């Protein structure tokens, strides 16, 4: 039997030509995937206006440029959301756990007044509710903007007595009276330390020279009311609030200080003042452009009104009848009803039921 005949059985080998072709096809397939990936990253992604988005653009990959009108909020589940206005309309920008963690690690969570250019896939529902789903934190360009403290929206401040080590790495806002200032010596790498006090509790707010320089080397005087936003940290067993941006530290006029009150103590003639109320939500009632919840504490009840343009339906997911809520918002008296109207998702928080 000549050598030209194949030998069948376990000793059979594929001809060299077949093996070369198989290897070549694998290499081509992998190369194609790599090229496709680089194309998706570097391709010229079209910029669109919010007002131009329609249902036919569902899943389209686009870029949107605008100003942040609602602070980034990181959900306990790990996702992140913030709202942009591009001059033609508003759009909610969503990201998953990976995007939220990347933005947090880099200190790039967007806040009100920041300019953002972001790419992602559009989600357009049947009722024209539109969202942009960010696929990568690398495809967001952030330009910080110093906030105007005269028009800053007071977020729902956490009482100083409730700030604990369990909140480490969480971003919160606090308000308190400045009691003491520690200034580092010349050449020292130690931080500046402001001690705030409110309702008998104290908390240290720390920041470094970079923030001090942006504050035009001016510190507030003791006795002033200070608002600070930053990350909770623990240093040598002591809870602190670390501030990384000068825009997150400013004086608050006494007129803007939230008044912690029982519902029975709130009067219609106080309309316009900012109140902090804690109570239990009742059955919601849909109204054009929003939803209204009754809220009750041990002394009485009033209403909390959530406008869709300020707090989206997705941001209200945790709210339902029976939930205990703390809300900080301006008082409105409307047709004999007292209402609190939160400015954004940062103005309320769900409390643990007692």
From TrEMBL:
Gene3D superfamilies: 2.40.50.1010
Chain segments annotated as transmembrane: 20-39
Residue span, OB domain: 173-243
GO MF term (any one): nucleic acid binding
Keyword Aminoacyl-tRNA synthetase: no
InterPro entries named among the record's database cross-references: NA-bd_OB_tRNA
Keywords from the UniProt entry: Membrane, Transmembrane, Transmembrane helix
Signal peptide: none
Name listed for the protein in its UniProt record: OB domain-containing protein
UniProt source species: Tichowtungia aerotolerans
